[in-house]
Amino acid sequence: MRGEGGGLYPSIEPYLSGHLDVGNGHSLYWELCGNPDGKPVVFLHGGPGSGCGPVHRRLFDPARYRILLFDQRGCGRSTPSGLLDSNTTWHLVADIERLREHLDVERWMVFGGSWGATLGLAYAQTHPERVTEMVLRGVFAGRRAELDWFYREGASRLFPEEWRRFLAPLPPAGLADPVAAYRRLLTDEDRAVRARAARAWTGWEAQTVSMRRAYGGGGGGDEGASDATIAFARIENHYFFHNLWLREGQLIREAGTMADIPGVIVQGRYDVVTPPVTAWDLHHAWPGSQLSIVEDAGHAFSEPGTLKLLIEATDRFAR
Predict the structure, then answer these.
(1) Alpha carbons 169 and 176: distance in angstroms, whole number
(2) Prior bond to 169 cis, omega within 30?
(3) Is residue 114 among the annotated active site residues?
(4) Which one from 56, 238, 283, 299 is the annotated catalytic residue?
(5) Pairing mode, if any, of strands 108-113 and 131-137?
(6) What CA–CA distance (Å, rounded) separates 38 from 33?
(7) What's the confidence (pLDDT) of residue 2?
(8) Which residue in 83, 113, 192, 256 has a CA-CA distance of 20 to 30 Å to 297?
(9) What's the pTM value of the predicted model, to 2 decimals?
(10) Are residues 69 and 134 in the same domain?
(11) Are residue 12 and residue 102 in the same domain, yes or no?
(12) Which domain does 270 fall in, by range?
């Protein structure tokens, strides 16, 4: 049974879970939910650095899907938390393949939003023969202009007060390149320095992610900066500092390798984190894709119009 208004499916618990040693000191938490004999799907969480949550299980019909969720390197319940060594886009692509083989899956559907869409594209372009369909939301392709929009100039013009709080922990010399300046703070030996930086880093994203803001934070002190928050900020900054280990424009330029993979792209019109131009560019470079722009939505997957289309896509591909 669906939730009220055709929204999320009811809450479920995993029927199987574990940790997979992927080398380099990393162990990944994974879980399987839904129907053990159902259609395989792998859910790729955002960030980078956030981890999966129970709500992500509810994007798929549990009677028809065998749902794999996992926390990427250094994220969530994977260990060690926040480890940056041997933690790159291409390590994660290899991890997805290890999980597929570990769980004896021949081919599967890929579902990802934001950074999860980035990782999904990198995986599908590396292993197109393993992907049956894709559902992507709030597409981020890791191009320089996309990073500059959110961390130099663009979103800052729409959220000047929040941007000022984001810059507050940085010395004057760091204002020209906030990602590099935050790199130094988030890798500082002093936990209090890392915590203050993590609070401001995550506060900026939280204040811009949705058209229906409920977040009350905004950076500054150590208050509320848990170890998980610090790990999230460190990993996300680590990826952006290294330009996600992608060649400029790579994921859009190589989208033709996915021509035989049907895909649905769902994009909020007023997405400030990943503006619609990237989803538009991807759609026109990917022959098998369908693009839907949600006129009253921002970046968050939980916004009603976006969620409705995501559930419709997973229902359609279940058939």
Answers:
(1) 14
(2) no
(3) yes
(4) 299
(5) parallel
(6) 10
(7) 59
(8) 256
(9) 0.95
(10) yes
(11) yes
(12) 4-142+246-318
